[in-house]
Specification:
The complex is a heterodimer of chains A (170) and B (360). Chain A has 170 residues and is an alpha/beta fold. Chain A contains nine helices and eight strands. In chain A, strand 7 and strand 8 form a beta hairpin. Chain B is mainly alpha-helical. The longest helix of chain B is centred in the N-terminal third of the chain and has 35 residues. Chain B is globular, with a radius of gyration of 21 Å. Classes of the chains: A alpha/beta (170), B mainly alpha (360). At the A-B interface, strand 4 and helix 3 of A face helix 5 and helix 9 of B.
């Protein structure tokens, strides 16, 4: 665990704080976001991003589009459960001029056994996956399949098929 | 307690009461027209306010572009056209619907403590939305369920009163309260069953009311219902005056009180259900706006009804603008309606020397 987080830090530390990407975590409805106290906020920080909703105390919080436009996130992570959907954000005219939407940087977190953004062992994979999206040109992205296969083998004694690992890392 | 629309000197007959109402009509004509026009300048100002700073000039420019048929090119233009404009229109329509239906309900039930929820509309709608959120998590479905369940609750209240024999106002009130409590209990049950991390916050937010999800899709139906309902209530403003005198007096003036009451209740319930379906349960407006209207233009429904429609629209617009612009997070409307509304009403009460028209 420590080893793997150190690998992310090694990459993210090369990016000064002001240049880190602004991340909006979208919850079970598009405008629900993770406040400072959510695990997702912590995960974004560990992955080397900046959670735009860090100024909000608390857990899942309803915000409005004006605030999102004010933050203008460069990347949006959508949770993989309870009706949340990437299409809802990409296809709605209200979101059209947010940077992340314009550049196609809206991604749903993977889930396998459990969602990767929840307080279960997979959270480690979630952090690495986020880092992969934040720093796409680094080994953080490229090594995803191998890390995922290794993780499930080691902690769950589960051999996951190669195509599943590939799908999770897409 | 006497009904506020009765003038202070008790009239001997219904005809005299109406004559007394007519007398109150001529003073304050200017104030009445100012009240009616109030939502328009407020809407223009609200368009330039929000978390995202957009100058008034840029707002006007955006509107010009939109009228010329150009799609929104920048984040600011998207916000003005796709977020602020529909939301402002929704706030105006919902406020008008709640204010107008509140005035109509208070007139029919001859009771100043009555609001739009008197027949269980709001509780029914709240239950419908909560259930839909629990089962599907989909907001459009919640809206539809709210609308249907709100109307079902009124129908149930009406049938309950009928089963007891007649459309007596007291029976209707009692039946409405019963139906309201029933649906409130069901809503609590849904809340207990809901997942505390995902569904419960959605339900709670919905039950406090908010317009953060209002988009252009919500507007056609809301506009249709509010427009038709508001116009119908406005057309019935004379009959409301007569009805507010009491059943017997209204009957002696040749009004079919039963039919008329059913019609007014139906229209007011429809207005409330449509408002709740889009904005969630926004308390307070239907109760207090008619009172504010009465303080400002008097008890005559010919002025009170349009004033309540307009005042409701203006009030909810101000509240919603606060809710979306004051804090980084979205604040439920129910929070600000009380915080802003109560001091305003107290100020009005202080100013009105007649003791708000309901002495004794």
């Amino acid at each position: 665990m420590d080893e793997r987080l150190a690998a992310i830090k090694a990459v993210s530390n090369r990016t000064p704080a002001v240049q880190r990407k602004r991340v909006f975590v979208s919850g079970t409805s598009p405008l629900k976001t993770a406040g400072k106290d959510m695990l997702q906020a912590e995960m974004v920080a560990l992955a080397g991003g900046v959670n735009v909703a860090q100024e909000i105390n608390g857990y899942w919080t309803e915000v409005n589009l004006e605030q999102v436009a004010q933050w203008d996130p460069e990347i949006i992570f959508v949770v993989p459960y309870k009706g949340a959907s990437v299409e809802a954000i990409l296809n709605s005219p209200e979101w059209a001029n947010i940077s992340a939407v314009k550049n196609g940087q809206v991604f749903m977190l993977p889930k396998y056994l459990g969602p990767w953004d929840t307080p279960i062992p997979e959270a480690v994979l979630g952090i690495e996956w986020m880092a992969g999206k934040l720093f796409p040109d680094t080994p953080l992205r490229a090594g995803c399949e191998a890390r995922t296969t290794d993780f499930y083998q080691r902690f769950y004694d589960l051999a996951i098929p190669a195509e599943n690992a590939a799908a999770l890392c897409r | 307690m006497t009904w506020p629309s009765l003038p202070r000197t008790r009239p001997r007959s219904a005809v005299e009461a109406l004559a007394a109402l007519r007398e109150t009509r001529n003073d304050g004509r200017l104030r009445f027209w100012v009240l009616l026009a109030l939502p328009i300048p407020l809407a223009v100002v609200a368009l330039a306010l929000g978390r995202y700073e957009i100058s008034p000039g840029a707002v006007l420019q955006t509107l010009g572009h939109a009228l010329a048929g150009q799609p929104a090119a920048t984040a600011a233009e998207t916000l003005v056209l796709q977020v602020r404009l529909p939301r402002i229109l929704a706030a105006l329509l919902i406020g008008a619907a709640l204010g107008g239906s509140g005035a109509a309900f208070q007139g029919i039930f001859k009771n100043p403590l009555v609001d739009s929820n008197i027949l269980g509309v709001t509780s029914g709608a709240g239950f419908g939305a909560a259930l839909a959120l629990l089962l599907t998590g989909s907001l459009p479905l919640a809206s539809a369920a709210a609308f249907v369940c709100g109307l079902a609750a009124v129908l149930l209240a009406h049938l309950g009163a009928r089963a007891h024999g007649g459309s007596h106002t007291l029976m209707l009130t009692l039946s409405g309260i019963l139906v309201g409590s029933f649906f409130a209990a069901l809503t609590s049950l849904v809340k207990i069953l809901a997942d505390p991390l995902s569904e419960l916050p959605a339900i709670t937010f919905w039950l406090l009311g908010g317009l953060s999800d209002a988009t252009w899709h919500d507007l056609p139906l809301l506009f249709l219902v509010t427009g038709l309902g508001g116009a119908l209530l406005f057309a019935l403003r004379w009959q409301l005056n007569v009805l507010s005198l009491g059943d017997r007096e209204a009957a002696t003036l040749g009004l079919n009180t039963r039919q008329m009451k059913l019609l007014v209740v139906g229209v007011a319930a429809l207005l409330t259900a449509a408002a709740v379906a889009v904005g969630g349960v926004i308390g307070w407006v239907g109760l207090v706006i008619p009172h504010a209207g009465r303080l400002l233009v008097g008890p005559d429904h010919r002025r009170l009804l349009p004033a309540s429609l307009s005042l409701g629209a203006a009030f909810l617009l101000v509240i919603d603008t606060l809710a979306r612009a004051a804090l980084p997070r979205e604040v439920p409307l129910g929070v600000f309606t009380g915080i802003v509304g109560v001091p305003v009403l107290f100020a009005l009460l202080r100013r009105s020397r007649t003791g708000a028209g309901w002495a004794e």
